[in-house]
Structure to design on (219 residues):
């Protein structure tokens, strides 16, 4: 028990910081670019805006292709890219790159679905009133879809938290790496239990805060 407490005291704060860095960075990148891609997919797929069948099919194919890859395979294939960008892919920054690439198409599909749920009559009335595409986006599409976008962000964040644990399999750091290095390789079962409890706690907090925000904007 003393050894377990010493391991946690020495390594847990750094592991948590690495996890928060990877998840936070990839969540921001994933939401920003995913939102833009989702918006493009919605606009070029709608008769009300800038319908473009070729562009829609192309973007749709890219999003589906990346989403179809299991995360571990995506992580391994992105190691050369991470090496080019940052030098050493086996770091939290390398893990953040892989998580970002996974998050972008994931949130893009969520965003597109959120936009598609907007009442068609509201969009049609906005366009008929002479509003530009930019005005419709700012004043109708984003406000109307905000609760769904927030819930999608929560889902993305929780998924990234789970993926970040897998990043530990390549030694990129985080609580997943802590669980593997000490809980698995050194048979410290208590470390595994602590990591599992931490992940459960973090997911519960994220879900609670996200639901509260989504409910607030739904009113």
């Amino acid at each position: 028990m003393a050894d377990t407490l010493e391991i946690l005291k020495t390594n847990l704060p750094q592991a948590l910081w690495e996890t928060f860095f990877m998840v936070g960075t990839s969540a921001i990148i994933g939401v920003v670019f995913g939102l833009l891609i989702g918006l493009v997919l919605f606009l070029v797929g709608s008769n009300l805006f800038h319908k473009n069948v070729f562009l829609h099919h192309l973007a749709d194919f890219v999003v589906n292709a990346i989403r179809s890859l299991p995360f571990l395979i995506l992580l391994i294939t992105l190691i050369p890219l991470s090496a080019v960008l940052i030098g050493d892919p086996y770091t939290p920054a390398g893990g953040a790159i892989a998580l970002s690439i996974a998050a972008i198409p994931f949130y893009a599909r969520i965003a597109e679905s959120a936009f598609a749920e907007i009442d068609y009559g509201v969009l049609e009335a906005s366009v008929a009133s002479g509003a530009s595409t930019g005005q419709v986006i700012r004043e109708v599409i984003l406000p109307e879809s905000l609760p769904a976008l927030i819930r999608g962000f929560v889902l993305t964040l929780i998924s990234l938290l789970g993926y970040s644990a897998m990043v530990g399999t390549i030694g990129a750091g985080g609580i997943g790496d802590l669980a593997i290095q000490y809980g698995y390789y050194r048979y410290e079962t208590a470390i595994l239990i602590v990591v599992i409890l931490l992940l459960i706690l973090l997911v519960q907090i994220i879900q609670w805060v996200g639901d509260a925000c989504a409910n607030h904007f739904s009113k």
